TrEMBL record:
GO annotation terms (biological process): Mo-molybdopterin cofactor biosynthetic process
Source organism (scientific name): Boudabousia tangfeifanii
SUPFAM superfamilies the UniProt entry points to: Molybdopterin synthase subunit MoaE
Family annotation (Pfam families): MoaE
Record protein name field: Molybdenum cofactor biosynthesis protein MoaE
Source taxon at top rank: Bacteria
Database matches in InterPro entries: MoaE_sf, Mopterin_biosynth_MoaE
Length: 149
């Protein structure tokens, strides 16, 4: 099998961004649709109403200026895998309400196992490497920073 070129990697990354706008799972799925794909795996990470037994009312995500470059790097690393057709990943910043999408990712591949593995790797890498900070707000007006890589 021939190695994947930089141009091929770039073509496989359909989106890799940080956004202050709502994230759209349907758009992500459509973007990675490919006639070579037998599988599309998606992830919709949403804001939940609790954390460690405490009620959460909303979240605020802040980012370091290098966050966009890091998410693009992660997408390129995953897209370099020969067995993938396309990759889409976006993380939201700003104020998010309960149920809002914080992280959306989609991957297509000829076979499901490659799609599942790539999707899990993207989510894990974004959560561990991208410098985005989460501030949880509670009903009493207090707040707490958490999950800061």
């Amino acid at each position: 099998m021939m190695p994947v070129t930089n141009a091929e990697i770039a073509a496989k990354v359909r989106e890799a961004t940080i956004s202050d706008q709502p994230l759209d799972l349907d758009a992500a799925t459509a973007a990675v649709n490919d006639p070579r794909a037998g599988a599309i795996a998606t992830f919709f990470g949403q804001v939940r109403n609790h954390d460690h037994g405490d009620e959460v009312t909303f979240l605020e995500y802040s980012m370091h200026p290098t966050a966009e470059a890091e998410i693009k790097q992660i997408a390129a690393e995953i897209a370099a895998r020969d067995e993938l057709c396309a990759v889409w990943v976006a993380h939201r910043v700003g104020t998010l309400q309960i149920g809002d999408a914080a992280l959306v990712a989609a991957v297509s591949a000829p076979h499901r196992q490659a799609a599942f593995q790539a999707l899990a790797d993207i989510v894990d890498e974004v959560k561990s490497r991208v410098p985005i900070w989460k501030c949880q707000h509670f009903p009493d007006g207090s707040h707490e920073w958490s999950n800061c890589p």
